Amino acid sequence: MKVLVIHGPNLNLLGKRETAVYGTKSLKEINKAIAAVASELGIKAKAVQLNSEGEILDYIQKGDYDVLVINPAAYTHTSVAIRDAIAAVDKPAIEVHLSNIHKREEFRRKSFVAEVAAGQISGFGTESYLLALRAAKSILSEK
Ligand code: DQA
Fold first, then answer.
1. Please, are residues 66 and 88 in contact by the beta-carbon 8 Å criterion?
2. Which of 27, 67, 92, 121 could form a disulfide linkage to 136, CB 3.0–4.6 angstroms apart?
3. Could you report the per-residue pLDDT of 122-140, keeping only the tens digit for each?
4. Domains and CATH numbers, the chain
5. Residue nearest to atom 2 of ligand 1 (CA)
6. pLDDT of 89-111, one tens digit each?
């Protein structure tokens, strides 16, 4: 079972970027936690960080995964293209956010991705990704 984890724009700056909102863990540390839980669950997880929308579309379209775990970051609130790519590949996607997007600015409450995702996990910091891996496993074992 293969899970592709996509970290969207600006998430390469984690650990330095708005630490009061996103925490002090770097992306490298988050990816380490993802790898540890993936191995505990017996899942193959590959994580990529992409700043450009086009590259995110390429990874989604390639479809080289059973479940997509995606933190679309700012594109969550703007990208019809990412929403359409997820709908087009027809594989389960889990939307992840470090912060609780429903508790912040009004513009963050709208997610184009949520409409095509199996579910959304928002507000638990690094744990949001780890919960998403557990959800990925349970989605696939239900199939
Ligand atoms: C985010 C929330 C988005 O609103 C924001 O643009 C991000 C990160 C999160 O993980 O909390 O870049 O997706």
1. no
2. 67
3. 999 999 999 999 999 999 9
4. 2-118+126-142 (3.40.50.9100)
5. 73
6. 989 999 999 999 999 999 999 99
